[in-house]
Amino acid sequence: MDSSWVTLKGRPMRDMTEVLRRFEAHAADEDRKATHEVYGESFEDAAFAFIERWRPAADDQGEIEVQLTDCESGERQCFRLDLVGGEAGLCD
Question: Which of 7, 55, 68, 70 has the highest count of CB atoms within 10 angstroms of its CB?
């Protein structure tokens, strides 16, 4: 593995010299007033960064839906993150 990789809670992450995109994110069940700025290489990376930093409450299945907006393009995506299995997928 490239020496610029470090592990954060079991998830590989590039060092901060990597160019990151800026996103706005909030848990899907929270008001948009709870939106926070996060950085990531992708929507999925930003979704994990959001839950690591802001720790929103999970549902009964141990999952969190995160709404993300790319601050440059305006593109929006929603990810459902499984906190137990560490998996992520697009919301239904």
Answer: 68
